[in-house]
Amino acid sequence: MRFFAIVAALLLTACAGKEPLYQEQGYVFGTLVEISIYGEDEVRAKQAVSGVMQEFQRLHDMLHAWQPSELSELNAAFAKGESDAISAELVAILQDAAQLSQQSQGLFNPSIGGLVQLWGFHADEFKPVQPGEKLVAQWVAANPQMSDISIVRGRAQSKNKFVQVDLGGYAKGYALDRAAELLHKQGIHNALINIGGNVLALGQHGNRPWRVGIQHPRKSGALATLDLHDGEAIGTSGDYQRYFMLGNVRYCHLINPRSGYPMQGVQAVTILTQGTRAGVLSDAASKPLFIAGARGWRAAATQMGLSEAMLVDGQGHIHLTAGLQKRLEFTDKNIHPEVEP
């Protein structure tokens, strides 16, 4: 799984050595991971971060969609029409992903891994691909859904052989929630976890909230900044990192399950979430808004229970909810977004 930072990394204003801030970077889920811990001595902070990084690697190894993993073994069984014994953790993940898919009316659909592969995005390095129209239509007609999966006594089976689960739009968020759980258990109360642009905040950065930036989808640097408070997470889905060009057409990895084609007409969607599942929601809940597009994003946000969301359409026009408008500070003061209640 290859993901890139969609939300800009933590914006720190303090000089190194002036405060007890420990930071460590790694590379997992195919993307850059950064963990910042405030207010702990280096030995304790380093130990805590090490545990989190190990957990991220464990999840990466379990949930990889195309390299050998528990998930890829399950997909192989589905393709053969067979059942497969899976761990209790994967059972819970699949059930949660299925609930989110149902809530989104299928716009968040992790079962279309076959389509993601068809478009060439199941690779560490991908090249421009143009699948045949008939092949795409075959996948759309097969209509794989998370509800096709049944799990009985720890064994999963799909009534639809076209179901191929790809949790690329869920795993980073799940990992954020697991990181928060692990840090809390170790008594770490102030931290910022950034997995390829999905960012979760614990506590504060000293006497102020954690400040993060939202990547501009077409320029280097931040489109806007905001403060993240304890238990909040922010996530962005964009067309500007995992994509290829054919002629003048941009094809991104975010595929509309109803058409079978990569979504166009949207540059980025950013959402703000909070609560015990803030991480998962910051990852999964942005996808229905992106797929719904400029006309349907606001209704999709309501459907997903989101009051703080923003969409940048294909022309670069910014649409956002009144709730998120109150939180954002745009770097370009000449930006005049369209605010929707």
Lay out the secondary structure.
Layout: E1 7-8, E2 21-28, E3 31-38, H1 42-63, H2 70-80, E4 84-85, H3 88-103, H4 113-118, H5 133-142, E5 149-152, E6 155-158, H6 171-185, E7 191-195, E8 198-202, E9 210-215, E10 222-228, E11 232-238, E12 243-246, E13 249-252, E14 266-274, H7 278-284, H8 286-303, E15 309-313, E16 318-321, H9 322-325, E17 329-330, E18 338-340
Parallel strand pairs: 16-18
Antiparallel strand pairs: 1-9, 2-3, 3-7, 4-6, 5-6, 7-8, 8-11, 9-10, 10-17, 11-14, 12-13, 14-15, 15-16
Helix pairs in contact: 1-6, 6-7
Radius of gyration: 20 Å
Report, as a whole number of angstroms, the end-to-end distance. 36 Å
The secondary-structure element order is EEEHHEHHHEEHEEEEEEEEHHEEHEE
The number of helices is: 9
Poorly predicted spans: 1-17
Q: What do we call the CATH topology of the largest domain?
A: T-fold
How is the main sheet built? 9 strands, mixed
Give the beta-strand count.
18
Q: What is the share of helical residues?
A: 25-40%
CATH class of the largest domain: Alpha Beta
Strand content: 25-35%
CATH structural architecture of the largest domain: Roll
CATH superfamily of the largest domain: ApbE-like domains
In which order are the strands of the major sheet placed?
A: 2-3-7-8-11-14-15-16-18
- Count of folded domains: 2
